[in-house]
Amino acid sequence: MTPFTAKVIDVIRSIPEGRVMTYGSIARAAGSPRGARQVVRVLHAMSRKHRLPWHRVVNAQGRIALAEDEAATLQRLYLLGEGVEFDSQGAIDLERYLYRPERPEEPLPPE
């Protein structure tokens, strides 16, 4: 396992319930600002093995990036179950729900 992959796994594990991160924000936190596609590969290959909270990872627009309907529905249900809200277009308000590892104790802003 490369050091970057190990860091990505650690960052994803650190995302608390009720928060999300984008592929790009995970890559930046793991030390490779241009590594968003590598984050996708890590999630695809290692989510089950490392029991990663894969459902807390969304795209830069705050949307579920999965194309498969069943997986996308499951991700949405998991996030709703954690209190993450979606707007009428299916996007998550990243200003409200984005987790920033550099500020782990930051509370959710009021609605």
Describe this structure in words.
The chain is mostly helical. The protein has a single domain, classed as Orthogonal Bundle (Arc Repressor Mutant, subunit A). The chain is 46% helix and 4% strand. The chain has five helices and two strands, in the order αβααβαα. It has a two-stranded parallel sheet with strand order 1-2. The longest helix has 15 residues, at 36-50. It is globular. It starts with a helix and ends in a 14-residue tail after the last helix.
Kindly summarize this structure in a few lines.
This protein has 111 residues and is mainly alpha-helical.
Output the keywords.
111 residues, mainly alpha, Arc Repressor Mutant, subunit A, two-stranded parallel sheet, 2 strands, globular
List the helices and strands and how they pair.
Elements: H1 3-14, E1 21-22, H2 23-29, H3 36-50, E2 57-58, H4 69-81, H5 94-97
Parallel strand pairs: 1-2
State the name of the first-level CATH class: Mainly Alpha
CATH architecture descriptor name? Orthogonal Bundle
Proportion of residues in β-strands = under 5%
Give the rounded overall mean pLDDT.
91
Number of discrete helical segments = 5
Poorly predicted regions? none
* Spatial gap, N to C terminus: 41 Å
In the CATH hierarchy, the third-tier topology is known as Arc Repressor Mutant, subunit A
Q: Based on Cα principal axes, name the global outline.
A: globular
What would you give as the CATH superfamily? Winged helix-like DNA-binding domain superfamily/Winged helix DNA-binding domain
* Helix/strand order: HEHHEHH
Quickly count the domains.
1
The overall strand count is 2
- Please give the largest β-sheet: 2 strands, parallel
